[in-house]
């Protein structure tokens, strides 16, 4: 990815040859964004050459986001008179798109500084203004100093430490790229899924074809604390034995390259773990490929693990409901697709010029054809409808990207909620620490892997208040299926408090009550203890030892990667029940969940350790380990069926 900033800039050198203007500032400039630390392993080098071509992209502020909470409550709070009256895509665009003034003022400023009109353009959704420029001109426009940064992998990019904008333009602008952004890209699960190879059923692995597998106790409930199966999950949460194919219902699972599923592995799983609702051989998800999305021919848990796990359970628990697979990104590993590339595909108004919301952090298309497997088409904008429920088992450290980037992505989840889509994310698999156990040092940078000091490191998008964050629970070791679950212990489940997002009103009394009755025992230098920050997760479900078809056999997977698709399946079944009686989908569910803690089995044992601490403890009521607890399907269904 980092290479691309330079490579792309070089291509543009042919496109224009403008001399630098001297700049005639219209109004005084003020610092707009500043970076205090360098994350990851970037090292600052020499000053960038003024003549280096640079394409500046100015992300304009959307309007009315300050009313997010009011809008969301209106359609998703159980006591709202307009519950379930979701918005159309056009209503969303009309409410949030940047104003004509924002575009006019920004263009006027650029023209006044000598940028010629032919070098300025704006994106279809009006969110971005693009300026074909040079490092030297950008330094003048933004009162910035650009340097060349390099990392250990030899990636190179141009960035500055701060930049300024005229006072009359600042109010219209979220961010300008490339400026202070230094990237660090990771997925929750690509590296951190806890895995027990070949552990179940013993000796099965090398026994294809699947049809010849014996089926010892595949539907038995006797060993659910050691091996989680569809039968165990149905028993744990009162999930009905069968789903139904309801017209208009849909459920989407998102996977990012190089992860992709293998049909034979799914076949093997479906043939053994039937649980009275056998998914027929060769049943496949509806394939929605995005920006070169493909099914990898490779095996191994690093490629198939996440995808096979998500689809085995999403499909087994909802069949005959169709499940949609959003398979995102091509095989160009240095410029991998992100959540924003996925969001572009289901919301054309979000798309920027080259795909992704942010050309520094997201994959930018077309990819150069010289890389094998490159997607050389245009970025896919608005090519698919969003499914009614979307589950994603990927995430990253909240602080690894600028606050403005996080805010824009989070606002997209708000919009999906307003349109009636339920979006859920795994809460993370490293407790209060971030990816690979990293914590935050006093200067804001990250500690080495699994450090025993530092500040807690919340995970995004679970820390965004407009998604449902799904944590992990487990049956106690040696426990029976009807025992009360505890916080997951094969791995510490992700949870804590955001450093960026405010406490949403739906969570207000739950968090207040948590602090009123419990002292987590850490001060402000350890985590955001202001009691004004979004706490996560919202719920927790079993997330240990999910038996999964993979590489011609079975393996057990643990992680919140497992619990999110399971909860997604439950909400999909509930949507089906609502559609059958002429009601709409449930959309953003958090306000309903927090208004009905009685539909959950509270989890009060365990903790989510990290950063050399025990993390937080699971306690009575909501907590930043297991949220409201584990949902009971029948009770949850009753609540949602009673709503308009
Ligand atoms: C339960 O599953 C574990 C893990 O596969 C296995 O070692 C054990 O024998 C199983 N126990 C029973 C009673 O089936
Ligand atoms: C599933 O279908 C494939 C392809 O038709 C076949 O090779 C395989 O044997 C079938 N598996 C089962 C378990 O029936
Ligand atoms: C499920 O998907 C298949 C393939 O796209 C389609 O033919 C079928 O009509 C779908 N079923 C329902 C109930 O939507
Ligand atoms: C999206 O949904 C609309 C309205 O239901 C429908 O007309 C359209 O064909 C769908 N588009 C795709 C790509 O499925
Ligand atoms: C704590 O969260 C609040 C609300 O999101 C935020 O305004 C504040 O800056 C955060 N404090 C720290 C130290 O991160
Ligand atoms: C916070 O607690 C840590 C130990 O947990 C201590 O080292 C530090 O001095 C405390 N900071 C403040 C501001 O009290």
UniProtKB/TrEMBL annotation:
The organism's place on the tree of life at top rank = Eukaryota
Q: Which GO terms describe its molecular function?
A: metal ion binding; serine-type endopeptidase activity; tripeptidyl-peptidase activity
Query: Where mainly located?
Result: secreted
Is Kinase among the key words of this record?
A: no
Amino-acid positions noted as binding Ca(2+) in the UniProt annotation, renumbered to this chain: 602-603, 621, 623
Instruction: Identify the catalytic residues.
Output: 306 (charge relay system), 310 (charge relay system), 561 (charge relay system)
Cofactor(s) the protein needs: Ca(2+)
CDD domains, from UniProt?
Peptidases_S53, Pro-peptidase_S53
InterPro entries reported for this sequence: Peptidase_S8/S53_dom_sf, S53_propep, Sedolisin_dom, Tripeptidyl-peptidase_I
Q: Where is the Peptidase S53 domain?
A: 227-643
Coiled coil (UniProt feature): none
Tell me, which GO biological process terms does this entry list?
A: proteolysis
- Please provide an example of a Pfam family that matches this protein in its UniProt record: Pro-kuma_activ
Keyword tags: Calcium, Hydrolase, Metal-binding, Protease, Serine protease, Signal, Zymogen
Q: Give the UniProt entry's GO cellular component terms.
A: extracellular region
Q: Which Gene3D superfamilies match?
A: Peptidase S8/S53 domain
| PANTHER family registered for this protein in UniProt | PROTEASE S8 TRIPEPTIDYL PEPTIDASE I CLN2, SERINE PROTEASE AORO, PUTATIVE (AFU_ORTHOLOGUE AFUA_6G10250)-RELATED
The protein's name:
Peptidase S8/S53 domain-containing protein
Q: Give the organism the record lists.
A: Podospora didyma
